[in-house]
Design brief:
Layout lengths: L7 H9 L15 E5 L2 E6 L11 E5 L3 H20 L3 E5 L16 H19 L4 E6 L1 H11 L4 E7 L5 H19 L20 H7 L14 E5 L8 H9 L3 E4 L5 H4 L10 H12 L20 E3 L2 E8 L5 E8 L6 E5 L13 H11 L3 E5 L21 H16 L5 E7 L1 H10 L5 E7 L15 H9 L3 H6 L5 H20 L6 H5 L2 H14 L2 E7 L5 H8 L12 E6 L9 H19 L4
Parallel strand pairs: 3-4, 3-5, 5-6, 6-7, 7-8, 12-13, 12-14, 14-15, 15-16, 16-17
Antiparallel strand pairs: 1-2, 2-4, 9-10, 10-11, 11-13
Helix pairs in contact: 1-2, 10-19, 11-12
């Protein structure tokens, strides 16, 4: 069933924020990118009615898959805080997300230094002397540790905190196995290094440091308000609570509602809105809420981060600067080809397993520039008013891809541009390439379809039946959590497919009709006529190939009529290309296509 979401995310921010361009089709700006001390961050200035409050929030991220799944929620919180006059800064720890990887390996020492630098940067950017430190997971443990030795911390918010590293590594090992099982990875294709999860490798130095990490060992002297929000099924260690109480801290307990849902692959993601409400009310209860910020000592600054063969610059683009991305360029010779890397599902711009970051930096070594970015409503890019809550397989993502091209054009990097996407991004890449010959190449990785017959994301018929027979159906329809039109269309398509499957033995051409072969072949012909290089990549045996084989034959013989098209298979890979060897194979294919495009006529 096509679930529209609660609709609360967009509405609350829009209603609260003043001074932002909220015209139909525009929406909030993305947070201001900032570069400092070799770090990249997102600064969200205070807005709304009244003067900026005399406090600001420093976000400390969790590790690995939890960070990937929490990114959108952190952006949402920053917007909620800003709408209430509270500025904030989010940043990436060294060796994670969009941050640089340290040659010697990133450990806790570099993370602690990053927290200190980020706290100083936040104070300078918003004119406050005291900050609230908010951390989740491992970030919460580091927040506790930082506040214990800080005199300028106004308050502390600990979300699903991790205080002891050795136990956390054991938990990550179990979670990693659960993820790998779900992906169907063979034992020999799994990365069993400590701390590694979902293809995100933990630096060896960090894993080693975590074995001896205990955030609560040191004395906690500041007498500050502390919000404790453990995971729903857990309680905070009583020893931690007692230590905070004995130091004179004012403790407030909160229920981290929807935490477990946040860490699933729900599409669109379910944000803990009720918990966000509680956080805002807690911030308003702090003494600093009643004071005003001074004039900032400096404005956000963006300079390229240079490391070896590449330099990266965070940027915003599109109407009202609503889209956030990273431009990665070669330090040495640029060969004239730029690759646009699209979002996959609701994974933000770093990609599953940090794949997009690795690809961009490898391509820079070959002289190729890249732009990786978040489409609206994903990661660091705010949603656009009036758009569907479910943005996957929607034309809005194609429009965002076009805006990425226009941004490159304004930078003089659009002479030869390729568009690359995986899964839902593969569909968007293919559809974007059909928009015109300005896209010189397209790489579509594990696409489920080239012509989308559904509205939003379809579900199995059994799941539709379950949803429609659950209590509260009328309420879910009334508040927009169920799109009746989408459900009706998708159920009809599913029923037609089921009929075609059963009748295929009698009428062999029926499955081809239901999969719209003619429309697909017309699209492929259009790309061939425009001279667009088209590369299709599949993980061997991937379920996404089912429709492709119906479109082009069991041996892909139908591709022979499209000389501009190449087909590659990657062995021992899941749909997400989690194993490192599978990703390396993909990177080689993309690099080969980029180099080939560089040698062709414009």
């Amino acid at each position: 069933m096509h679930m529209q979401g609660t609709g609360q995310e967009d509405g609350k921010v829009e209603a609260a924020v003043e001074g932002h361009d909220l015209r139909e089709g525009v929406g909030l700006s993305a947070s201001q990118p900032v570069v400092y001390e070799g770090l990249t961050g997102c600064f969200t200035a205070a807005c709304g009615a009244g003067d900026p409050r005399g406090m600001a929030v420093l976000f400390l991220s969790p590790w690995g898959l939890e960070e990937l799944l929490t990114r959108k929620f952190y952006r949402y919180l920053a917007e909620r805080f800003a709408a209430n006059g509270i500025a904030s800064l989010r940043f990436d720890f060294p060796g994670t997300a969009n941050a640089l990887d340290e040659p010697a390996g990133c450990g806790l020492a570099s993370w602690r230094d990053a927290i200190e630098s980020s706290a100083d940067e936040l104070r300078a950017l918003c004119g406050v002397s005291r900050i609230v430190v908010l951390g989740q997971g491992l970030g919460a443990g580091l927040a506790y540790e930082f506040a214990a030795g800080s005199r300028d911390t106004a308050a502390l918010a600990l979300l699903a905190p991790v205080f002891k590293g050795r136990g956390y590594l054991r938990e990550l090992k179990l979670w990693s196995k659960f993820v790998d099982d779900g992906l169907g990875l063979r034992p020999e294709d799994r990365d069993s290094e400590p701390g590694t999860i979902a293809g995100i490798g933990m630096p060896e130095k960090l894993a080693s440091d975590l074995k001896g990490f205990n955030a609560t060992e040191r004395d906690f002297r500041p007498q500050i308000p502390v919000l404790l929000a453990p995971r729903p099924e857990l309680e905070i260690d009583p020893a931690v609570t007692e230590k905070l109480k004995s130091s004179g801290c004012a403790l407030q307990n909160a229920v981290y509602r929807d935490y477990n849902v946040l860490l699933t692959d729900a599409s669109p993601p379910v944000l803990p809105v009720a918990f966000a409400d509680a956080l805002v009310e807690w911030l308003k209860s702090l003494p600093e809420w009643h004071t005003q910020a001074a004039k900032p000592s400096r404005a956000p600054d963006v300079v390229p981060l240079v490391c070896g063969s590449f330099r990266e610059t965070p940027l915003r683009f599109g109407e009202n600067n609503r889209l956030a991305g990273i431009l990665c360029e070669p330090v040495d010779r640029f060969i004239g080809v730029t690759v646009v890397i699209l979002s996959t599902s609701y994974d933000y711009q770093i990609g599953w397993g940090r794949m997009n970051v690795q690809l961009a930096r490898r391509l820079a070594e070959a002289g190729v520039a890249t732009l990786r970015f978040d489409s609206a409503g994903i990661g660091d890019s705010p949603p656009v008013p009036g758009r569907k809550a479910q943005v996957l397989y929607d034309d809005s993502q194609i429009e965002d891809a076009e805006l990425a091209y226009e941004a490159l054009k304004s930078l003089g990097l659009a002479e030869k541009v390729m568009v690359v996407g995986r899964c839902s991004g593969a569909y968007t890449a293919f559809q974007a390439a059909l928009r015109g010959p300005h896209w010189k190449g397209c790489i579509s990785i594990n696409p489920y379809a080239f012509h989308w017959r559904f509205i939003g994301l379809p579900h199995p018929l059994k799941e539709y039946w379950t949803k429609f027979t659950e209590p509260g159906l009328v309420a879910r329809i009334r508040d927009g959590r169920i799109d009746l039109k989408a459900a009706a269309v998708n159920i009809l398509v599913r029923l037609i497919d089921r009929a075609a499957q059963y009748c295929g033995g009698i009428f062999p051409g029926l499955p081809k009709i239901t999969r719209r072969n003619r429309k697909v072949h017309q699209a492929f012909r259009k790309l061939a006529d425009m001279g667009t290089r088209l590369t299709i990549v599949y993980s061997e045996g991937d379920e996404a190939m089912d429709t492709f084989l119906i479109n082009f034959g069991s041996n892909a013989e139908g591709l022979a009529t499209f000389p501009n098209t190449r087909l590659h298979f990657i062995p021992n890979a899941d749909h997400n290309l989690t194993p490192s060897p599978a990703r390396e194979k993909l990177f080689g294919i993309v690099e080969e296509e980029a180099l080939a495009l560089a040698g062709t006529e414009s």
